[in-house]
Specification:
8 helices, 220 residues, 4-stranded mixed β-sheet, 7-stranded mixed β-sheet
Length: 220
């Protein structure tokens, strides 16, 4: 990300990512989105305590493909939540559901409430494609790098399909090998039951990659 870059922290939780980023990049700005009230409150306190406003601008809301409101399912076994109510029903039950505000990236951008991103981190428990679908204009114009967690082949396929309409993206294994991912790689990781962290890089930003990714790209 450039020194004066713009970072979207979508599913910001208590703000570890956005706070660490603006501390390490003093000229960067982050727009943080967290729909869970308890987590958003903790992030707000951290922003105030560290004097990071307005470099971190917090929206206590979810992002999706339609602006309005939605039911957010909170899971019984941890502090995660999803707009997809059956996202983790294979091994847990939701403990409650709350109504949350949902914005779209494009609506926020059109109203000048956010700036075009250089880097997006999405951790929204399965609704990554919906978030990106709500920001197609922003994505096509900015062509940001996008980091996301993938737990199923369906999730990856949905994200890849959305991004295919926004630019020419290469997908990297974001931890460990830093190498470009193939369909075989994705299938192998998912079959093992492991989540995989993925970095999607648009071709116009490939030359900005850290050395480890560049080397892996050349070897591939």
């Amino acid at each position: 990300m450039p020194d004066k870059g713009i970072f979207y922290d979508i599913g910001a939780n208590v703000g570890y990512m956005c706070i660490e980023l603006v501390h390490s990049m003093p000229l960067a700005t982050s727009f943080a989105f967290e729909a869970q009230a308890e987590l958003a409150k903790a992030l707000k306190i951290s922003i105030e305590t560290n004097n990071l406003s307005p470099r971190i601008r917090l929206f206590e809301a979810a992002l999706g493909d339609v602006q309005g409101s939605a039911e957010l399912a909170h899971f019984a076994h941890d502090g995660h939540a999803s707009l997809i109510s059956n996202e983790k029903l294979q091994y847990t039950k939701t403990k409650r559901a709350t109504s949350v505000t949902v914005y779209t990236i494009d609506d926020l951008a059109a109203n000048n409430l956010i700036l075009p991103p250089d880097l997006i981190k999405i951790d929204v428990e399965g609704s990554e494609a919906s978030v990106l679908n709500g920001g197609l204009d922003d994505l096509r114009n900015a062509k940001p790098n996008i980091a996301f967690e993938c737990s199923t082949l369906g999730h990856f396929g949905n994200v890849r399909e959305v991004l295919s309409t926004s630019g020419s993206y290469t997908f990297f294994h974001a931890l460990g090998s830093c190498r470009p991912l193939t369909k075989v790689d994705i299938k192998t990781f998912i079959q093992k039951g492991s989540k995989i962290d993925i970095l999607a890089v648009e071709k116009t930003r490939l030359d900005q990659l850290p050395a480890a990714f560049k080397e892996a790209l050349c070897k591939g």
